[in-house]
Amino acid sequence: MDFREIANVEYLNQGDFACPGCAAGLSMRHALKVLGDETVIVMPASCWSIIAGGLPTTALQVPLMHVPFATAAAVASGVKNAFREKGEPKKNVVCWAGDGGTFDIGLQAISGAAERREDIIYVCYDNEAYMNTGIQRSSATPPGAWTTTTPTGNPLIFEKKDMFNIIASHNPAYVATTTIAFPDDFYAKFEKAKNAKGFRFIHLLSSCPPGWRIDSKDSVSAMRLAVETGIFVMMEKEGEQEIKVTYKPEKFKPVREYFKLQGRYKHLDEETINVIQERINKRLKKLNLL
Amino acid sequence: MQKDMLLGSEAIAEGVKLARPKIIPAYPITPQTHIIEVLSEMTANGELDATFIRVESELSAAAAAMGASQAGVRTFTATSSHGLALMHEVLHWIVGARLPVVLVNANRAIGSPWNIWTDQTDSMTQRDLGWLQVYCETAQEALDTILQAFYIAEKIQLPFMVMIDGFILSHTLEEVLIPSQDEADEFLPPYKPEYFLDTNNPMSFGAAAKGDIFYLLRKSIEETMEGSFDYIDEAHKRFEKIFKRRYGLIDTYLLDDAEIVFVVAGALVGTTKVAIDTLRKNNVKAGLLKIRYFRPFPKKEIVEALKGDKKVVVFNKAVSFGSSGQITQEIKEAFYYEDKKPVLYDYVLSLGGKEVFVENIVDLANNLDNLDKFKILWRE
Amino acid sequence: MESVEYNNVISEEDIKKFPISITTTEVNLTGSWRFSKPNFEEKISPCSVGCPANTNIPKYIFHLLKNDIKTAANILRDENPFPAVCGRVCPHFCQEKCNRKEYDGSVEIREIEKFVGDYALDIPYEKAQLKTNKRVAVIGGGPAGLSCAYFLAKNGYRVTIYEKENFLGGLLIYGIPSYRLPREIAQKEINNIIEMGNIEVKLNETVTFDRLQELKNSYDAVFFAGGLSKDRIPDNIELDNENVFSGYELLKKLNTNQSFAQKLKGEKIAVIGGGNVAFDVARTILRLGNEVEIIYRRTLQEAPSFEEEKAEGLEEGLKITEKSVVIKIVKAKKLNLTLGKVDKIVNKEVQLTGETENIEVDRLVIATGQAKEFEIEKDDKIFLGGDYEHGAKTVIEAIASGKTNAYKIIAHLENKPFYFMNEQDNFLRSKRDFDSYKVVDFKKINLFYFDKQPPLKTDKLPAKERIKGFKEVALKPALDKILNEAKRCFSCGVCNECKTCWFFCPDVCINVKDGVDFDYTYCKGCGLCSAECPRGVIDMVEDK
């Protein structure tokens, strides 16, 4: 991707409260570049509730509505229908939620909105735990990962909730997984989401330097490694079409390389890593990637 | 204006239709269902130009209402009992965001055990939210109150909860005067909020606030509540002028010379009035104070109405366990600095729809002196 | 509460009523969170260390890709006045050092240089200003001398070039055959230098040892780059310039005497030697319709000629007799040569196997090297350069020698110490267009941004066509291919405004325009710009 071709216009103000190297801030910056100024953001409790700045300030140059944790998709339904009633049906109404607000507490409202074919874009920036409250496990936390509520690592009996397929089974207008570490993929998917009509869902992998125990400078390379090792697969499903994997490396790197970078996995022994690697391989095979 | 025989729920739906809301998110729950069924029908057949959002829970109903209202359109929802309880978190947010959502709550008991019949536990436990609360006696009052609710809520930018007793009011046929749309429009102008989600003038709503700002915002809610009496009064005058029906913060029945006063909120007012008529025939000077506005609580009017040598029986259809009936609490509090206080009896009755008959009230009046005024009184 | 910003949008009263934010988070000076900060620091690309002239290759490629080929040409010519020549005859040491080499093959820098150099042929240099009255004599008008004159003139010195031939350019004109370096290309670059001003040219001036001493007295400094004008001939062979020639002698004769070329046609000619001159001579006479055989004492693989020359020569039909020396010449109607088979060479001593072979040829050319005409001592006024100083080397090394000596002379005349920008690498640039002398190695390259893509394949004239005349062997690739190849450049250590840092800055703190600006008021010091920079231009430095 030629970064020189990306518009210089910014909808993210300086001085936001994101931690250094936070991918959630970075992802918002670029999502808004695609979505543009005819966009309204609905934001449930998440790191972004803080990142966005305290009263009377705001980090965004588009309208933003903070809402209770479990309600983003429902609030957005109300907002979108109201805009339609006002004769402004083209506004992008976008939920911007973390994994807690999506995989866990907000899931019911999302399912409702998806089933009702609400014309909204739901973006989940998934940093794989409750990071704003100080790194507690969510159903997006991968097996093995340390959090403050899984002090010996997230037990292997769990698997990260398959949000993509949960949403896909609602037959949405568009559903995708991506990360800002792959700018082309990220931009293409936001563009598609913007142009589709109906319920659209984008699952972003979003690194968290304090929560993943990584150096802030590595936050993009960590996400990149997640894709290159196949622990995170970038894919999409457009309307009635089949699921499409949008990035396949020449050869998947061993997941060990991804773990090595992150303190949250440092306690893992070889055996555990092998179990996780096996699971990844199984999934990649199922996706015809191995 | 047109006269018709309507169920309470239908009357409410008519009132909502006349108010021309744009968004109605709702989730069914007995005994609120008739209201939203009629509203669905109205939006489906084009009688009401609004979007009905069939949300998947009351939490989402409140949330969608919050979103729609923040987007700047008139928004209505209705619920009951567990539904209202599930909305609780968002009901707070709607207040904090200063959104004039109007909600009808069909009063119903909350489990466990299951019970679908009426009491006021659901709304009484939401009294501290910052929503205005009105308890309606009749279907006509409910219809009229909805128009007033939108008018007042939009003036003061606080949400408004209109209570009707489940079944007793919602499922009962009544003769109702239905205003014409022109009259309704004359009373209730279109909603034009000053601040809303506007891409031409982007702002953020509800960002994290430090204590100093948060405190001021909360203080402002209270100030608005206190100042709302003027707007309510103005609304009532305006309403009377157009519709020739008079409403107040409270209502009274044979109160002036009464020695025994029953304080009642909701549809029980009707039964109590019949009991008062019976007592009067037996030369017992009984009277009634109807609490219409519970929030804001009209202390001044109530003190004025109950002052003098009166014995006051407060009917509570809810209880704050370990304390007393909520209405009793409020009245006691209103009299704290008055020199002359009435004798108050804190009566809890009709939880979970336990029926109250005229003779129960008559018996109560006749036995008053035997009752313990220091305890919550329960029916035998 | 910062209520003042709300004016005109939301009333004083309403601020206390509605939880609305309309002012920006810019009140939070997040730069105060920082422990380290990004620092823009352009460095040295390994290719430019490999290049004897230390050309800023990434920088000119950047301007080429920006469609500013004029600037590209000027950057190239800042360090090397012969880009079009070098684009053809330089062995491109730069490509050997290219970081892309171990990834998917070095960038074909030569083709890019040739393209830019050719473009620059018609762009005259800015007129040189005279900044001092000091005068420098340059002896020898070959690439080293011309290069020295160029850098001196550019820096305001008056230069006189003494050339013994009646033309400038030395080997560029008479040494390298035109199928490798078309004469008009070399001539144009020479003209461009001379037309710059400050340079006086004296042709047909042979500078002997004695003459040199005179010049030393009448100039402030003398640069001697007289080359290796004496042929080094094996002891058992005598030149007669009729049947037995030295390589350069023959090339010169062919260049100046058309009828002589005609006379040669159809003959069988042997060339002794394995260097570029041997191959140049052999391939030249091959083109005149002769049968040519190269006789070399070692194997072809060991021959010091450029690999490309050998390969092309073989394609064109050169016959090579390896591991052989001429041990006897009998001059009859033709030349009868006795070749002895070489067993091994120990300390330059040839040991024969005893095996012999006789061949008959019409003429013999000796191209076994050149030597100095006379010895000159370096002193405070005499500077030595080019082949004379370092022995027979490449054109680019001659250019680099001329350049280095020009700056040595300037330092000397200005009474300043001369130093390389980096002593270890003898690194010298006319412009200090980098921030620090750190060579960016392969590990510093963020490979995510570079898809594997093989280097440009250059086309050549088919061998059959080539031997019909002196058309340039290397064909010019199409513009899009050149640009595509230019895009392969990692631009190691040199910012090409790719905006990757800008893209990955979560704090909206980077502005890319003529370099990179950081807004330290808000930069939280995360280091993503540094980690993601594809070419190692941004470093994190401690910041208190």
What do these coordinates show?
The complex is a heterotrimer of chains A (290), B (380) and C (544). Chain A is α/β, with parallel strands linked by helices and 290 residues long. Chain A has one domain: Thiamin diphosphate (ThDP)-binding fold, Pyr/PP domains (Rossmann fold), CATH 3.40.50.970. Helix content of chain A is 36%, strand content 14%. Chain A is built from eleven helices and nine strands. Chain A has helices at 23-35, 47-51, 72-85, 99-104, 107-115, 163-168, 183-195, 209-212, 219-228, 255-260, 270-286, and strands at residues 39-43, 57-58, 64-66, 92-98, 121-126, 174-178, 200-205, 235-238, 244-245. In chain A, strand 8 (235-238) and strand 9 form a beta hairpin. The longest helix of chain A is centred in the last third of the chain and has 17 residues, at 270-286. Chain A is globular and about 60 Å long. With 380 residues, chain B is an alpha/beta fold. Chain B has two domains: 2-243, Rossmann fold; 250-378, Rossmann fold, CATH 3.40.50. Chain B contains twelve helices and 16 strands. Chain B has helices at 8-19, 33-44, 58-70, 81-96, 121-124, 139-156, 181-187, 211-243, 268-281, 299-306, 326-334, 358-366, and strands at 2-7, 23-26, 51-54, 76-79, 102-107, 132-135, 160-165, 173-178, 204-205, 250-253, 260-264, 286-291, 293-295, 311-316, 343-348, 376-378. Chain B is globular. Chain C has 544 residues and is α/β, with parallel strands linked by helices. Chain C folds into four domains: 20-42 and 496-542, Alpha-Beta Plaits, CATH 3.30.70; 46-123 and 434-487, Orthogonal Bundle (Fumarate Reductase Iron-sulfur Protein, Chain B, domain 2), CATH 1.10.1060; 135-229 and 372-413, 3-Layer(bba) Sandwich (FAD/NAD(P)-binding domain); 231-371, 3-Layer(bba) Sandwich (FAD/NAD(P)-binding domain), CATH 3.50.50.60. Helices cover 34% and strands 18% of the residues of chain C. Chain C is built from 22 helices and 21 strands. A five-stranded parallel beta sheet of chain C has the order 6-5-4-7-18, with helices on both faces. In chain C, a hairpin with a 3-residue loop joins strand 19 and strand 20 (516-518). Chain C is elongated. Chain C starts with 11 loop residues before the first helix and ends with a strand. Residues 1-7 of chain C have low confidence and may be disordered. The chains are: A alpha/beta (290), B alpha/beta (380), C alpha/beta (544). Chains in contact: A-B, A-C, B-C. The A-B interface holds A 37-40, 42, 49-50, 52-58, 60-68, 70-71, 73-86, 91, 108-109, 111-112, 115-116 and B 22-23, 25, 50-51, 53-57, 59-73, 75, 89-90, 93, 197-199, 202-210, 213.
